Amino acid sequence: MLNLETVPVANATKRGDGVKAPTNGTLLGLFADALKKQGAKKVTPAEARAFVSSVGRPEGAYSQLLAYAVETGLLKKKGIGRNTYYEVTRNALHLKAIAANKQSRA
Asked: Looking at the whole model, is its pTM more than 0.90?
């Protein structure tokens, strides 16, 4: 029988007497949290690809993640072709609230 109390959580941290997930677990929420922790001002597609892979998602999910981050206002696309990068435009805490209220497509 599966003991659900011992199932690992990817983004869990110990808080007080228990364990709490600092994000809602969506890919966008995890991404916003990572951007905040790193103090990122810009992100390249290669960095987004590495991020999605690091959280156990297929590398191809990075384009959907970037598109949704642009749609929600977290990122603003800059440049063309190989010179494309994304500027962080909003506070990650604000994005967490958006991500919690919307169902993530990424």
From this structure: no
